[in-house]
Amino acid sequence: MIAKVRHIVDKKRLMANLPTERYVDPKYVYIATNNARCDKSELYIKVGDHVNCFQVIGMRFAKYFVQPIHATVSGTFVGLEKHYHRNGKLIDFIKIENDFKDTFDSSVKKRSDEEIKKLTKEEMTEILKDCALVGLGGSSFPTYVKFQTNEKINVILINAIECEPYITSDQRIMREYPNRIINGILYALQAFQCNKAYICIKSKYKQLKEIYTEVLKPYPQIQLKCVGNFYPQGWEKAMIKSALHITLKDNELPMQKGIMNFNVSTIVGLYKAIKYNIPVVKRNITVTGDGIMYPKNFRVRVGTPVKELIQLCGGYKDPEKNKVIILGGPMMGASIPSDDCIITKTVTSVIILNDVENKEEQCIRCGSCVMSCPCHLQPVLIMNAVKAKDKERIKTLNPLKCIECGLCTYSCTSKIHVLDFVRKAKIFAKL
Questions:
Q1: Residue 152 and residue 264 in one domain
Q2: What confidence score (pLDDT) does residue 250 get?
Q3: DSSP readout, 133-179?
Q4: Do 126 and 267 belong to one domain?
């Protein structure tokens, strides 16, 4: 479901200036057994076992890769509980009672600068695999798989565009951890034997531009690149076109053009993995929307219940009204049926809106969805083909090109959830 952004004002600018509050010591944390990419798992612990922070407590299995499951605190394994995941599904979570000691697992290892300089790309790949680093902008794609490319990389792009409404977690991480970002980029440059990187931000982020103009002076190989202020500028194809004036063809990967890109939060995770041999156990998120009392930026422990963050924001505003709860951005995030959901490492934000009933009208064929589509699709025709269950017609309309940005639904004058039909079309196209 896509939330309509109502009464749009520049709340992002105000939120970006709110200091980040730390909430890294909940009484219990909950670690997902499965996720959107891994539908099977195996646990290495039993109820009552003590676990250390960063300890591998299980393994997730996908079709082409495996992913270690790490404890995000030290404490006691209580058992499994079902909660909502960011993918919208009710799944099993590993419940760990925090002992508040943060006892580190023996796998934690601080590497000296000299040790890091000797690391090869293959060695870094294994480190990232063991630390289960994934795309933290929301994609959750395993970072080590990117490192396995044999393509010659000429430039690295850091995606700090954060183009969706409301979300400011990347802006906060850029303000608070510039050294981690820079070192993470330097490690990536070393791995790919590359000497050029750009940090991409929106042109309107004036304060970030001032900050990074100064902090990057000692690093001529890393430059700031100001790109467009439109949505979806954060889409990798749009970012690459704006930053490098290179247009990717359909089904062409950035690495085939000598380009490697990472989300800015991912590059911080890369730094922590290479420097300390640790996975992501904390992350910056935004909790905002017109349905809570006080929007805030948080640094939270992975596994924190969303309910606790809502309480820290003063609870619900207008509690008598139904709420729409979104994990991720309002355009591409997932609407969750309950606040009984958990912060996983790929959750960038929690958006809570007062539900507004919109009456869906008949399509008037105005073409708004076609004109707004960044992939140059024809969403209205895809919708009609889905309604007619015309599988052959669906395939000719190329719904698999859709990036699910949600602009078709957002621009629809008849308030039709067009993207829902495109998602169904993707399923038909794969049959």
A1: yes
A2: 87
A3: -B-TTTT--BHHHHHT--SPP-EEEEE----SSS--HHHHHHHH-HH
A4: yes
Contact at 8 Å (CB) between 299 and 284?
A: yes
For residues 239 and 125, membership in a common domain is answered with yes
The answer to whether the CB of 241 falls within 8 A of the CB of 157 is: no
Same domain, 313 and 377: no
Distance CA 237, CA 19 (A): 32
Q: Are residues 284 and 272 in the same domain?
A: no
Contact in structure between 302 and 283 (CB atoms under 8 Å): yes
Q: How many residues does the chain have?
A: 431
Q: Say if residue 205 is in the same domain as residue 285.
A: no
Let me know whether 272 and 292 are in one domain.
no
Q: Could you give the number of structural domains in the chain?
A: 3
- Helix or strand holding residue 181 (H, E): helix 178-192
Percentage above 90 pLDDT, the chain: 89
Tokens of 315: 């609870």
**Which positions of the chain have pLDDT values less than 50?**
1-9
Q: Which amino acid is at 132?
A: A
User: Per-residue pLDDT tens for 116-151?
Assistant: 999 999 999 999 999 999 999 878 899 999 999 999
Asked if 137 and 177 count as a contact pair (C-beta separation under 8 A), the reply is: no
Range(s) of the domain holding residue 95: 11-106+280-354
